[in-house]
Amino acid sequence: MTRRGLLRGLIAAAFAAGCGEGTPRAEQGADAAATRTVAEMPGSPALNEPLPLLDLTDLGGETADLDQFRGRVVVLNMWATWCIPCRDEMPELELMHGRYPSDAFTVVGISIDEGETSLVEGFLEEYEISYPNFIGDGPTLFEAMGLYPGVPHTLLVDAEGIVREHWSGRFHPFEPVTEALVAQLLAG
User: Fold this and answer.
1) Where are the alpha helices (DSSP H) in the chain?
2) Using the 8-state DSSP alphabet, how is residue 114 labeled?
3) Which pLDDT does position 129 carry in this prediction?
């Protein structure tokens, strides 16, 4: 094998390791659950715990609080305009947002983009995203939620603000297990 071939293989392996398919932790198998507790899983928020208070701003630059969504099931998606998996999942998140009654369910996005909010606004307009979006500082958010640095991350939060599930990597909102989790939370 040439150096170039070896380098390509290492890059592909590193990329594959860092870009998961978004499998919920509950579905990763008994072996993984038996060998590690939630606290030992690096880059995973504590499930069945309240979503921490997050330092966010709305697109107008005003301080924002996710408590405004209390009483609704929330799919909370952290993303960035430069993130290819984020771009792939956002149209599906938009469909998911419109699929359930707005008084009981919403999708909420948090962009970790730095710089002018016009970049985020233009992106949301281009992709025709209507669900609420906010801006947050990536490192601060990752630390507050116990996530490894990077996007996308998606959390399922119940109506009381409790984190019930977490996906790292590309989120697939219409997989049967995801739809079942949302339906279960909506049923109360």
Assistant:
1) 3-18, 30-35, 84-99, 117-126, 138-145, 176-187
2) -
3) 98
